[in-house]
């Protein structure tokens, strides 16, 4: 099961309507979910991609520039006027997905990367003249011969790709240095030079990229904020976090989860994005635009940060924030949480029945 809440003006929660909600509701409206598993959820500005265990995708939300219109995607209307249906034929098998504000990035099981949607600053990675792709287009000559993609990561307007040889490539908006040097928009995959260790994972904020090396050693490097580290992210994060388990990024904050369950936060905190010092031990994390979801080691889901659209549950303060505290998200007692995901003021909880 998928429970969704938060921003839903384009039907991106898959609830069968287009109203924001603050109480988790069953997503993938009207579908039999007993026969499918969820491998990954990626959310753009107003669209959502749900990667299923069989390598197919369910897509919800805006399709105004082709970000969900794809032969590799099962398009299912959250509302008849919000998303057209397309026949489920000639499907590509997908291994991984990510999303910028108006684009979708797909890693095919064949090893190729494809993109669809809109990218005025190079978000599609298809070359300087390709700013819109109504259907997925294969990124040419990528990955390099002899290398394979192990991870995709995207934020508002840029994407980075980690390869099995430890190299990282990126494309999209790069004027803050989030794609390395030179600090400019990048329209085709470009290798990020100068990473002092083999990369195993990367996450993206709006104006930065964090690249992670060996988890036991906890090697980290931040790219971006060349001219102004407004929220002190680059200045505050250490070069290593030994015992690192996972990492996540919101638009302006970075979250580091350690093997012992300790959750560290760095960067922007004006809406309460960073975790409270007394937060319980955490098993898994997901960062959205300016909010965070966490699954505790006790099996509870917590949410905090900017929650104006209901994406942090209730209550919020006058400004729509859950600040210096957290909300515990209630779910049916029969449901065991297996994963959490977050997008642009959207929150998703994946569960399995105990029965």
Automatic annotation (TrEMBL):
Q: Which positions fall inside the RCC1-like domain?
A: 2-348
RCC repeats: from-to residues: 1-54, 111-165, 166-215, 261-298, 299-353
Q: Which portions of the sequence form the region Disordered? A: 15-35
Q: Superkingdom of the source?
A: Eukaryota
Q: Which UniProt keywords apply?
A: Guanine-nucleotide releasing factor, Repeat
Is Repeat set as a keyword in this record? yes
Key word Hydrolase present: no
Q: Which PANTHER family match?
A: RCC DOMAIN-CONTAINING PROTEIN ATS1 (PTHR45982:SF5), REGULATOR OF CHROMOSOME CONDENSATION (PTHR45982)
Task: Please give the name of this protein.
Answer: RCC1-like domain-containing protein
